[in-house]
Structures are given as structure tokens and as C-alpha cells.
Amino acid sequence: MKYHGSRGGYTLIELALSMLLLLLVVGVPVRFMASVGHAQRELDATTTLNARATRTLERLTLRLRGANDATLTPAAPTPPGPLFVETLVVDYEVATGYSPGTPGTGGTPPTPPGPLFDTPERVELVPSPSDPTNGVDDDGDGLVDESRIVWSQGGPVIVLCENVPRAAAGEIPGNGVDDNGNTYVDEPGFLMVREQGLLRVLLTLSDVDADGNRITATAEQAIALRCRP
Amino acid sequence: MKNTKRNSRAGSALIMVLVVVTGLLVMLAAVGRVALSHKTEVVRDVDDRRAFYLAEAGLTEAIVSMRRGASGSVGTATTPALLGGGVFWAEASDIGGGRTQIDVAALHGSGRSALQAVVESDGQTPLFEAVLSSRNQLTLNAGVQIDSFDSAAGTYASQAVNPVNGQTIANTNGDVSSNADIVLNANAMVFGDATPGPGHSVSLAATGSYVHGSTTPAQAPLTFPPIQVPNVPSAGGYSVPNNGTATLPSGTHGFSTLDIGKDGRLIVQGPADIVVDHFVGGKDAFLEIDATNGPVTFFVNQSYTHTNGFEAVPSTNSEMAVAFLISGTQPILFPSGSQVRGAYYAPDADITFTSSNEAWGSFVGNTVSMSSGTHFHFDETLMRHWNVDDGSNADTMNILVWRTRDFWRTDLLSDRRDPFAAMGLVRANLQPPSASWIF
């Protein structure tokens, strides 16, 4: 007796059905993995951007905390009048120590004791060289007219942070309305607010992740100016 | 023949496997080393930041200790103060001219940080530094709003032009303080600092409550210095008749009872100190304060009565520099609809704002309570006139210099172990900062 069962094949319909089933069984987890991967990439990009925003503010805080409150410009507002002054540029000098004073000798007058300050520094928001302010995404990075935060001390300029958008998170530029409800109107992605005894820094960063999605990170810090000679 | 060929190749697979496994192990070791190095860097970065904030806390502790009469040194290099899982010590040195240099070193895990500050005392501690101060829990009822202004710069209305958090206010120095908790009910807003007592906290309602400034607890409890009543003989009772007007010239006055009659007006010219046993502000009467040449201080020994419609007002172009220093425990009640101006220092009495009140000044009491919707405006001019010296050298310290500096203990810079191991410390033998002050 010949036994044909072990060499029996599949019909076309059986093949089609089994392929369909295979697609379903394999396709769902593959799709799931793809969406997880996408979410992971977006989360990684957001985390990185948040970390960059936080680090930028920490660097500013460490520097500005030792700034001379009396000479930092813009100067603190005094009542009656506005409570704060918004600015994109601050000039300040940082304390480096304390001098006991020197007695006068010959024709040199004595110097009184007092704090010593370093060469003045500047922090400001400037347009990114690769994307000048013209309403066009000149560098093709998905961001229009972004800016950068720079620090200088009378010499070379050091870039503290890139990818600062032209408007803060939640703010529609140029409409004269405080869209994000934080008291400031049409503020850019980086704003410094001078109040009595402190400088408030608001930062928004914007970037595009690997999948082309726009991501945004925000951070805010109130920096108490500790030197008040 | 076939068997021989197979035998000659036996074992070659094992060598290949060994080679591959060895290569994988080497790669794994390299990756592991990179990961470990990265982890060490991240941990070091976190610890350095913790050490920095610990140093900041140490500097604050040193300054607070100086305000309480200590030297400014806190702990030592061999017995540092213990705080938040790390240690710090502060070394204070007198550099002359009333100035003190404080160097603080702090260690937390593998982190090391050092700060330097030069502080000087201005010799003055304002008696009134907040709009509301109480020994016990301070509860701000729904809709209570607190900001600040300066009566020396004009009226509150002329200064209330600044939008903050959806409200229009004058300034953001409307501080509140308590030796216990501070509770903000719905939509209560403090445009200033809310400072609870040590170990206490600020509770914010879920709906609309807001604090513009700090909510950090105080390092030390509020002190309520005793009222130093001038020794002034009493001239008996003093009354302003109903609908009448009277003027008290500048100087020192003493009365058993000072009574401003219904619809009467008493004008007091500063500088003046007035000692009374009982103060009565009559219905719809006015107390007009002319502080052009100096402030006016009422020392009330027994009772203060604020009748419906009574109001203290400044003379034209005068700041509202008037203070009621009230001894005793008799409650102070501001009736419904009262417009209250001035500073009230009644540390042993309970102060109550009943309903529909508004207040411009400062209020210090055993408790301070108010109805919903009360608005308080701290008058910053009050900080310039009444200072206290309670014998503890509680002066205001001004920071002239603040900077980060090199961590001078180079041995501890190279040894990045936990400070308890690196310095040979026994945690149980260390004291918290407040117990580490050096006098």
C-alpha cells in the first residue's frame, strides 16, 4: 500500500489563508514595535532638549548669581512704576573677591576696602547666523528665524545655546496678546526679566526629531542677585 | 576513509567559538567600561550640584547665626554640620569695618563645592517686614489678596498698575510669615513670600491659590521682641469731642484714655510718641497722621477699640508712618467695612478682620484672621521707621560679595568617597546646622 499523506501539499486557498494569518500575527507586533520606536525617539529627543534647556539655565544661574545687583543693566525698576523690565541683553560684573583697601602712598590716593569685580560680561539673544530674521527657514532645519544665546566678556563670543525659537512656547508672535498667560506679551524664546534683586530667565527651545516632529522644551529660573554692595 | 576526514576536522568549531566569544567579551568589557564611566560622570555631576546647594544652605545658616549673635562660623573641618545627607562647615573671619568674610565648604557624596561671601551688618532690623505675621497658623481665606506699595511714593491706587498672575497690583513685597503653617484657600494670592515656621509648610488650595515669591520655611522662628514703653507720665484722659477737631503736636504725650469722638478728627504731627492705656477710635472718626517730619507711634498698654467707620488717614503728601504697639492679650477687632491703615504690633493678641475690610500696613499678632476677599497691602515705608534691638544682635545682614571659590581642601578633592568615609566622620556624632553655631 502506498501512503501518500506525508507528501500531501497545500491548496492555494490554504496557502492564502495561512499567509493572511501570518500577516496578522506578525504585522500587529511589528506595527506596535514601530510605534513604540517612534515614541521612544520622540521621548529621547524631548529629554535631550529638556536637559539642554536645564543646563543652559544652570550655567546662567551660576554666573549671574554672583553679579553685582547695583550695576547690572538694565537696572531694577523702582516704584511707583512697572515691577519689571523685559530685556534680551544683560550686562553685569561678577564678584571675584574683597579688597581690604590700600593706603595712599606719595601721589597715589588711598583706595577704600570693598568688593572686587571682574571685567563686565554680557548675555544676549542674537539671530542665528545660519538663519537670519527674514521669515524663511534658510538653513532648512524646520525652524524659522531661530536665535542663539551668547555670552561674551569683551572678547570672543561663546554660544550657550542654539535653537531658540522666535516665540516662547504657547505664544503667537506679533499679535499683542499674552497667549500663554505668563504676564509677558509676544516674548521670544529667550527672555530675561529684571526685577528688584533678581533676574528671571525664561527659555524655550525647539527642535525637530528624527521623524520630523516638532518638539519643544521650556524652563524658567529666578536668579537672586547675591552681591549688593 | 570518510571517518578519517570527519575526525581531522573535529574541534575546529570549538576554536572558532572561542575566538568569537573572546571578541564578544572584549567588546562587552569596553562597552561596560564606557557605561560605567558615563554613570560615574552623571553621579558626580548630580553630587556636585547637591554640594553646591548644600554650600548655599550653609552660607544662609552662617548669616542667620550672625543675626542671632553668633560669630558666623558653623561647624568645623573636623566636626562639620550634618544636613540632607551631606556635610558642610562655614569659617567666618572679621575683616574690619563691620564686615565678615564667610567661606563655606560642602560635601555630598562625590560632590565638592565652596562659596565665599562678604557680609556687613547695617545695624537695623525692621520691626515690620511682612504684611501679616503670626505666632500660630496663618490661614488666608478664599479670595484674600496680598501685595505691597509705598505710601512715601503716593497712594496705593496710583501704584496699582502692574498686571501679575491675572491681577493688577502695586508691588510684590507683600510677604506673610508665621511660626506655624501657612494655608491658602481657594484663590488666595500672596504677591510676595509666604514663610512658615521651621519644619512647617505652605499649603496651597487646588483652585487659584498663588504665591509669587518663596515658600521656603524660616531657618529660625520669628521673634516678637517686648514693647519698650517710654516712661511718660499720664496727663489723664484726652478726648476729641463729637464732630470736633484737635491737633496733637509733635513730641511725647501720655494719657490714660485717648478717645476720638463720633465724626471727630484728631491730627497728630510727627515725630510723636503717645502712651495711652486705652485708645478709642469713634464711629466715623478720623485719625490724621502728618508724618512729614517723622513717624507717629502709639503705645497702647491695655485696649484698642476700632469702631465702625473709624479710619486713620495720612495728611496730604505725608507717608502713612503710624504704628500701634499694643501690649496685653485683649483681642483687636476691625469691624465690617473697615479701611485700616498703619502698623499694628500686638504679639500677644488675636487680630480679626471681620468682613469687607481692606488694609494698608502691617499686622503682627498671636493670630491674624480675616474673612474671605480681604485685601492687604504691605506699606514698605514701615520698614524704614521702626527697628528693634532685642539684645540678640538680630541685625540685617547685607551681602557685598558672593562667589564660588576653589574647594581648598585638596585632599578631599582627590578623595571622592562619601564624606563620612573620606573624613572619618561618624554620622551619629554630627549635629544639625542650628546646633553647630559657634559663638
Tell me which protein chains meet in the greatest interface and how many residues each side has: A-B, 26 and 34 residues
What is the radius of gyration of chain B? 32 Å
DSSP strand (E) fraction of chain B?
Answer: 35-45%
Report the total helices of chain B.
5
Roughly how many Å apart are the termini of chain B? 99 Å
Going across the major beta sheet of chain A, what is the strand order? 1-8-9-10
Regions of chain A with pLDDT < 50 over 5+ consecutive residues? none
Overall SS class of chain B: alpha/beta
Q: How would you sum up the major sheet of chain A?
A: 4 strands, antiparallel
* Main β-sheet description of chain B: 15 strands, parallel
CA(first)-CA(last) distance of chain A: 111 Å
Fraction of helical residues of chain B:
10-25%
Describe what you observe in this structure:
The complex is a heterodimer of chains A (229) and B (439). Chain A has 1 helix and 10 strands. Chain A has 229 residues and is of the alpha+beta class. Chain A starts with 11 loop residues before the first helix and ends in a 5-residue tail after the last strand. In chain A, 23% of the residues are buried. The model of chain A has no long low-confidence stretch (mean pLDDT 87). Helices cover 18% and strands 38% of the residues of chain B. Chain B is built from 5 helices and 29 strands. In chain B, the strands form 5 sheets. Chain B has a 15-stranded parallel beta sheet that branches. A 5-stranded antiparallel beta sheet of chain B has the order 1-2-3-4-29. The longest helix of chain B has 56 residues. The termini of chain B are far apart. Chains A and B meet through β3 and β4 of A and β4, β8 and β29 of B.
Secondary-structure map:
The complex is a heterodimer of chains A (229) and B (439).
Chain A lengths: L11 H53 L20 E3 L1 E4 L2 E5 L14 E4 L3 E7 L19 E6 L5 E7 L25 E6 L2 E11 L5 E11 L5
Antiparallel strand pairs in A: 1-8, 2-5, 3-4, 5-6, 6-7, 8-9, 9-10
Chain B lengths: L1 H8 L2 H56 L13 E3 L2 E11 L2 E10 L2 E11 L10 E3 L3 E3 L4 E5 L6 H4 L2 E3 L2 E3 L6 E3 L3 E3 L4 E2 L3 E2 L6 E3 L5 E2 L26 E3 L4 E4 L2 E10 L4 E5 L2 E10 L4 E5 L5 E11 L4 E4 L7 E5 L5 E3 L4 E15 L4 E13 L4 E5 L17 E8 L5 H5 L4 H4 L17
Parallel strand pairs in B: 5-10, 5-27, 6-11, 7-12, 7-28, 10-13, 11-14, 12-15, 16-18, 17-19, 18-20, 19-21, 20-22, 21-23, 22-24, 24-26, 25-26, 26-27, 27-28
Antiparallel strand pairs in B: 1-2, 2-3, 3-4, 4-29, 8-9
